[in-house]
Amino acid sequence: MHRPSDPAEHAAARVDRLPALSDFVTAAEWEKDVISASAAVHAATPHRILRDDSDGLVVLGHEALRHLSQDPAVGNTPLEFLEARAAERARRRGAAEPQDEQPTPFARFLHNQVFTHNPPVHTASRRLVGQPLLPRPAGSMRDAAGRAAAELLVSLAGAEDVDLVRDFASPFVCYFWAEQLGMPVEVADQLPEVMDAMNAMFLFDPGAEDVARLRAATARYVDLVSESIDASDVATPVLDHLRAHLSTTEGLRDPVTVGRFVASNYFDGFHTAGVAVASTLRQLLDSPTSLRLVRDDPGLAGAAFQESTRLATPVMVSTRLTLAEVELGGLRIPPQTPLAMVWAAGNRDPDVFADPHVFDLHRGAGLASTFGGGAHLCPGRNIARVLAEAAVTAFVDPSLEVVPRGRSGGWIPGSAMRVLTTLPVSVRVRDA
């Protein structure tokens, strides 16, 4: 392992003098697999910040990611910026849409997402989303998560064809959130299929069929979640908080119901948490030694989640925008510069991590950049850990035997998310 360096130690003083990502990997290599492409760049150059093929920068280094994520002048990407970039990509493909088209379901889905907000709105909307997910309230949901994981896994025992992605990870988090949000079980039953279709959201170069699938799935998802919540008078801690504070939160784009706000801002709970659970189980199955350690000590479930999300960072790339000039180790980054924050690359930066591509339960806490940092630190990080720990604890329960059935289906290619496609196993109850 190399000594962690200043994040811009090798950087030129001017952005336009930085080398380009395309100097080291092709666009096709990058879009096919961000993790392997990032490893190739790390091996080829000491630079950890590179130019992209337009007007932005690609941030690959752990230290640079850490500094930039905590800089208040580095903000979220506003909805207008995302829409303009999407329109430009469509124009380049010859698929530009009519200018007078009404906002798509996907655009409406993004309208009140905290991940498109910047100050002063960001502080209030983030508080609204995040307070029910702080460590203490997240911890109070631990028993519910454990019960949901154990009951679902036991229900799969004896089935001929169990896919831990399709049959366990995604349904588990959807059932959990349905309980926390007062949603009927029949709604939760439909959500895993919708989550699978919404993976198209993260494709680097979606085709027309992908866009159509995403639009349909987004509309269905928002309707399922918002209508079931808004029609319910069930009281839960999360809903009570949102009902009490939504109407007094200033700066939200449109009048919005609790259900529509939940659909926009708890999407990662339904989707990304399931992605993280599946990849954690995959990493354990791929590392029999680590799996034995966790079976012997289920208290290592949290370490398994932490190391898995370092190796298979669920959100591999997200875009930030400089709100003012940012200086990083002598490099001056102009305002309105898009930053591709490659969390997956930072989590495997050889300047920081020894044997960065190896699953190591004893690596220790505090380094991985999985959840970002600063004012934009992921508000769902605590509950994601609770869910993953519950899933792993159920997975290593001595009363069950979970055995792989061939190789997993691999990761969705061409995506900014590390999404496992299938994980086939057999599950049986051990004889008493």
TrEMBL record:
Q: What is this protein called?
A: Cytochrome P450
Species per Swiss-Prot/TrEMBL record: Nocardioides zeae
The taxonomic lineage of its organism, from the top, reads: Bacteria, Bacillati, Actinomycetota, Actinomycetes, Propionibacteriales
